Amino acid sequence: MRFQHLAFFLLIILVACQNSFDSDNVYDSELVLEDFDYFEEEIPFSKTAYGASVNHDDMAALGRILFYDKRLSQNNSIACASCHKQEIGFSDNKIFSTGVRNYETTRNAMQLVNNAYQIAHFWEGKEGKIEDHVLSPVSNHIEMGMKDVNELVEKLKGITAYNTLFNQVYGEEISEELITNSLSTFVASIISYNSKFDKGEEINFANFTISEVAGKDLFFGKAKCFNCHGGDHYSASWRKNANIGLEMNYDDQGGGNGRFKVPSLRNIALTAPYMHDGRFETLEEVVDHYANGVRNHPHLDWALTTPIALDELESKQLVDFLHTLTDHQLINDEKFSNPF
Ligand code: HEC
Ligand code: HEC
Q: Which residue, 154, 161, 187, 277, is the most exposed by fewest CB within 10 angstroms?
């Protein structure tokens, strides 16, 4: 009889502990892999690019959970999504983003759209694939502040739900490699191909206003934007970075001599403020720089050495065109949204 009482008592304690664990981690019980089609058949871009060849929906679904989990930071305050927000094209609306302990980043947070197709990453234009870079924010003392990636591995191992999820997706224990695979597959799956421009390409731009058509002709013609923001992703596919004459003396030299990554212009109307240092608030200011503000830096890119002379109407048309690169489907797509 006594033994039964004791057993019952132990059971109660066990259940109570279980509950208190759950209440510390309120959302863990809801963590499940959702069944989304991340690498859809109809994606029009080359299947040989990293993102489209990885075709693993479960890896991306797990990556999505990690991307939104604040526990990836040292004090549980910052997730990747704190600085890369879906509703504004996975960028941040601040000049500099707030990381752990309210530190500020020293550069403007970049958008993450169609990253798998780009040859350079980060503002200096580092070569390599996304998987070489996704975990660097975790141990960056400003961004997420972990001692090193091992600290994250151990932390996730202490969370029951993650042990279950990693086992489900990989049949293996949590490791640095598998966290990297999941996060980079999710980032690679953020593919935009449903902008007004994309739709227009199929119907000879019958969906465009007169001003948007004029802006398109400027972008690909006289204004020479396409010289650098080229290809399907409007990001240079043949060079890592360029100097666009923002300064005569750069405080931040980027990849050297004031050269910075040629960023993709997809969803550009959503991702203000602009440039590596977030110096421009609007697209009008950006266009004004190219038309009137380019400084004759010794390393200025050849494409910008002759002024492009745009009048007021042309500048407006160019801005109207840039707005056609916004993909409303992507920013509302549930498979990229916060799972918590
Ligand atoms: C505190 C804000 C912050 C957090 C948190 C953050 N990032 Fe970033 N991210 C940035 C900034 C700022 C840059 C540009 C850094 C630079 O060039 O030096 C960037 C750049 C990137 C890039 C390069 C994009 C490109 O076009 O080259 C990737 C990929 C990226 N972040 C992924 C992530 C992932 C994955 C996480 C979570 C593990 C994350 N970021 C967390 C602010 C943040
Ligand atoms: C010589 C190559 C080059 C040309 C030509 C060029 N750009 Fe850029 N663009 C860049 C680089 C490099 C950056 C990033 C510079 C930095 O942050 O220091 C950039 C940044 C931008 C940004 C801000 C992106 C962001 O995410 O903050 C916009 C918008 C933009 N360019 C639009 C245009 C338009 C419109 C034209 C044509 C009038 C144009 N660019 C011509 C290389 C170029």
A: 154
